[in-house]
Design a protein that fits this description.
This protein has 16 helices and 16 strands. The protein is an alpha/beta fold. The radius of gyration is 21 Å and the shape is globular. The two termini are 29 Å apart. Bound molecules: zinc ion.
Length: 437
């Protein structure tokens, strides 16, 4: 019989999109999350559930902590481990500095060692689901899927397609090679356990029309794969894209013209979109994924959260590590708040946590399986420590409401507040475990 575990602590989750629905937040000061066989059996107040737990239930008490659904980082680059925090220019110049690093990933041993470090680091930050850009080398994505599968972790990933405009000395792939590599990765990994493939042109600048057609063909041949790429990040990037595709009136139209918009398409950044683009995104159900840490680091601009809200556009959140100088979704939420403030819009903690939890699940169309603590959902969750640092402890003692508690985590927290991370009910990270234990 599978072991049943009652996780006791404060519990927080969202039941719907707080931009649309009021009263969609549940916060239990002293709750029980009952987990069995990797799934959530029930949640409720401790004083009600403790007396009716199944026989031989193990009770784990997470003192001074809030349990939240595992975080979703829906835009992140695995091969940028050694190039995070590199001083430099804005987007196009910065890419010339960091892309050469991706060559190393054609060596399966390098790819495997770094996939291990990358995924461990994400879990240390409480991220349990990611949409990852690998390098151009198929081996980088093989290694990521292998590692995630060994942990039974949810992962969406794809190798970047790029057949032009890469820095000198970089191996360019051809459209035929991209088709072959992606097809083989899809066949091996897509739908295996908790893994999914995303067709991943790096961006329109790096792909010829033939390569874009390959992306389109892969999507039509495999209807349930995802699609991810960059869109409208930096003004010079937008300008160059329109020079390469003069038949298109906007950057969004480039992808639209190849049939690449839709409910499984995730567009990273989307900073310099116009109103008509937001309208088209809403019509097609496409997903916008701002990455505030990266957008500040590269000086790319400010995502229009309020426009997205008014247009009822599907939004998720990412870090865009390594242009984002963090793998912490709490830091990404903090930066999202500051980004919105600069535009006169106060992003509520509920909206921020929605983007990083249930909103991420909805973006991937898997909110029937994950994203909050409803019974039957997969038990991916994070234990956030209210006493992680002296300042956080002091501030939490003076918290005025559940919204205040969550806002303090968002503004003062990062990997230090993540005490434990659970994937499908199993602990995959304990902050306080020593390496040599
Ligand atoms: Zn990116």
């Amino acid at each position: 019989m599978a072991l049943t575990v009652a996780h006791r602590g404060s519990l927080f989750h969202l039941l719907a999109d707080p931009r649309i629905k009021k009263d969609c937040v549940e916060f239990l000061e002293d709750g029980i999350l009952l987990v069995s066989d990797g799934a959530i059996m029930s949640m409720g107040p401790a004083n009600e559930l403790l007396g009716q737990l199944p026989a031989e239930t193990e009770v784990v008490y997470h003192h001074d902590a809030v349990l939240v659904p595992g975080f979703f980082d829906l835009h992140v680059h695995s091969p940028q481990l050694t190039t995070v925090a590199i001083y430099g220019e804005q987007l196009l110049g910065w890419l010339n500095t960091i892309i050469p690093e991706e060559e190393a990933y054609k060596d399966p041993e390098v790819a495997s060692n770094r996939a291990d470090l990358f995924i461990r680091e994400a879990l240390r930050n409480g991220t349990t689901t990611m949409a990852v850009y690998g390098s151009w080398a198929k081996e980088s994505v093989d290694a990521l899927f292998k590692k995630a599968d060994s942990l039974n972790m949810r992962l969406v990933a794809g190798k970047v397609m790029a057949d032009r405009n890469m820095p000198e000395g970089i191996s360019l792939t051809s459209p035929d090679q991209d088709y072959e590599d992606c097809s083989s990765l899809i066949e091996t990994w897509h739908g295996k356990g908790r893994l999914s493939y995303a067709v991943t042109p790096r961006f329109a600048i790096s792909c010829t029309r033939e390569d874009m057609k390959v992306a389109s063909r892969l999507i039509s041949e495999h209807h349930d794969v995802y699609f991810q790429t960059h869109l409208s990040e930096n003004p010079k990037e937008v300008e160059f894209t329109l020079e390469l595709f003069p038949e298109c009136k906007s950057y969004l139209e480039v992808y639209d013209s190849f049939g690449l918009l839709g409910k499984r398409s995730i567009f990273g950044h989307c900073i310099h979109l116009e109103d008509k683009d937001f309208k088209r995104v809403a019509e097609t159900g496409s997903i916008l994924c701002p990455n505030p840490p990266s957008n500040f680091f590269l000086g790319s601009g400010l995502f229009k959260f309020e426009n997205a809200k008014n247009r009822n556009v599907r939004v998720a959140l990412g870090t865009d590590f390594g242009a984002g100088n963090t793998l912490s979704m709490l830091s990404s939420m903090e930066n999202a708040y500051k980004m919105a403030q600069l535009q006169g819009y106060s992003l509520s903690p509920w909206e921020a946590f929605y983007y990083a939890t249930l909103g991420g699940a909805k973006a991937l169309s898997i909110d029937d399986r994950i994203g909050n603590f409803l019974p039957g959902k997969e038990a991916d969750f994070v234990v956030l420590d209210k006493k992680a640092t002296p300042l956080i402890e002091w501030r939490m003692e003076h918290a005025r409401s559940p919204a205040d508690v969550m806002f303090v985590f968002m503004m003062l927290g990062d990997d230090r507040v993540v005490r434990s991370t659970y994937v499908a009910g199993q602990a995959v990270h304990h902050r306080d475990d020593r390496k040599d234990d």
